[in-house]
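Backbone Fold Data
Goal — fold tokens
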Amino acid sequence: QVTLVESGGGLVQAGGSLRLSCAASGGPLRRYRMGWFRQAPGKEREIVVVVPINWSGGRADYADSVKGRFFLFRDNGKNSVFLQMNSLKPEDTAVYYCAATQTMGGKWDYWGQGTQVTVSS
């Protein structure tokens, strides 16, 4: 079992940047498939980016809406994953969650509490 804690959200103007952190405890993140999700009020939760088990900073599968603007990084020493968000748009406003699973095609077993990102015009 792994516990995830997100941080780094806040209020930013359109065009600005934020960096979100997902810190894990209870197990190494390299043993899990990782993902970032987001959910705006009244809308479905959507995928932001997902990576496979044993991801080492290579290919990541980004949603089309964030490609070229959002970038995923890892720090195994801190057992953390970071989501760098650039050129933010009001449409990016949502609660952002990190999640983990040990099953490639299964449900996401572990979730953080979420961090609010608000982008103003």
